Amino acid sequence: MSAVSPVAAAAALPSADPLAAALVAVRAHTAADPAVVSGRGLEALIAGVGVGAPRKAWILPGRRERAVAVVRGCTADRLDEARPFRVVPPGDSPAARALYAVGLALSGDPAVVFVGTGTAGYGAFHEALQLAAAHAAPVTFVVAWYANPGPFAAPLAVAPSVLAKALGFTTFVVDGTDAAAVRDAVAAADGPTLIEARLVGRG
Question: Do the beta carbons of residue 143 and residue 106 sit within 8 Å?
Answer without folding.
Answer: no
